[in-house]
């Protein structure tokens, strides 16, 4: 029981500390934070608009914004912001950075989970499809807020089954 309380406390402290991480010229105050008033679609739109202009107003500001809406459970998988940024710049997700346009379509929604499909035109003109899973945070500093729990790698239309 005490160990569980300690883990919850450390998880909350870790979430708060991660908001204070400085990204070249970007601090938490420059980034919109999750709150209970945002709908799941809003969360995805905030991320996509930020990634669409990743280096505005500063280098990797879009990645920092995206990280702000990454669910605490997802952060345990993706690691700290620096590792998350490297993942987005890697071959699986770099098509999201500086993309030309996007459309979001809801696939399913329950009171605590939603899945959306995004259709994007990458900077190089390639069309891709991405699925987002959004869930409500149950506890901690972001309790009640919708945050991203998972994102599929972008698939070209011919690869979508």
Task: Name its key features.
161 residues, alpha+beta, 5 helices, four-stranded antiparallel sheet, single chain, Nuclear Transport Factor 2, Chain: A, disordered N terminus
Quick structural gist:
The chain contains 5 helices and 4 strands. It is of the alpha+beta class and 161 residues long.
Structure description:
- This protein is α+β, with helices and mostly antiparallel strands.
- The protein has a single domain, classed as Roll (Nuclear Transport Factor 2, Chain: A).
- The protein has a four-stranded antiparallel β-sheet with strand order 1-2-3-4.
- The longest helix has 18 residues.
- The protein starts with a helix and ends in a 10-residue tail after the last strand.
- The N terminus is likely disordered.
Give me the count of strands. Answer: 4
Helix content: 25-40%
Placed side by side, the strands forming the largest sheet appear as 1-2-3-4
| Residues in β-strands, percent | 15-25%
Which fold name corresponds to the CATH topology? Nuclear Transport Factor 2, Chain: A
The appropriate CATH architecture is Roll
Output the number of helix runs: 5
Poorly predicted tracts of residues: 3-7, 9-29
By helix and strand content, what is the structural category?
alpha+beta
């Amino acid at each position: 029981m005490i160990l569980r309380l300690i883990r919850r406390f450390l998880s909350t402290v870790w979430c708060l500390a991660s908001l204070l991480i400085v990204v070249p010229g970007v601090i938490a105050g420059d980034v919109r934070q999750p709150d209970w008033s945002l709908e799941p679609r809003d969360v995805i739109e905030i991320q996509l608009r930020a990634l669409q202009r990743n280096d505005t107003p500063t280098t990797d500001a879009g990645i920092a914004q995206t990280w702000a809406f990454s669910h605490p459970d997802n952060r345990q998988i993706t690691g700290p912001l620096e590792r998350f940024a490297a993942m987005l710049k890697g071959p699986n997700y770099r098509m999201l950075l500086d993309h030309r346009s996007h459309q979001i379509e809801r696939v399913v929604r329950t009171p605590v989970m939603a899945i959306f499909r995004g259709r994007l035109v990458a900077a190089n003109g390639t069309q891709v499809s991405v699925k987002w899973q959004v869930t409500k945070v149950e506890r901690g500093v972001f309790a009640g807020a919708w945050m991203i729990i998972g994102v599929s790698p972008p698939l070209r239309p011919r690869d979508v089954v």
